Sequence to fold (232 residues):
Amino acid sequence: AQKITQTQPGMFVQEKEAVTLDCTYDTSDPSYGLFWYKQPSSGEMIFLIYQGSYDQQNATEGRYSLNFQKARKSANLVISASQLGDSAMYFCAMREYRAGGTSYGKLTFGQGTILTVHP
Amino acid sequence: NAGVTQTPKFQVLKTGQSMTLQCAQDMNHEYMSWYRQDPGMGLRLIHYSVGAGITDQGEVPNGYNVSRSTTEDFPLRLLSAAPSQTSVYFCASSWPGHASEAFFGQGTRLTVV
Fold:
């Protein structure tokens, strides 16, 4: 069963506008972490932001914020004031934990969303 | 500070050949993983390890072997290459901590002809 779903294969946004990239997940574990990574055309994987399942507030890192809706099992990435350099593939990922907080270490990824920022 | 180092960056194999993709990290991370990236399928987990001497299968383990004799190294072996194994391979490492991000190598682009 697909654990991480990114339903937008491609998204377009105008420079300086905000954009939301969708991510839904499926888990029965009450303890998990959600991550977003950026992959530019050069191919490297860049960590952007993290949200823990018990975090009370939405995570923010500069222009990146995570719209975490636990009941809906969604963890959408919001990029504010888009820049041309934001054009890349974006991956949502989830790490589930064994009860007691010990991480398996396994990170499950979605299919990715290609974001294109237009000038 | 090298982080996660993968070699080689590019490789072309003939069907049936074997090879080893190397991965080394210098951050003393306990967890290491191998992923393959194919268009439209995201990153799929091949094998992972939670420490030296401990490995387990991921989502797509067939045709690949791993071992973890040291904390630093986690090589991925292709036993008999097939065209279906043409992909980009990423090695990643992390702490087992609650919010630990995974650090990725630069990737290996493998083509099997």
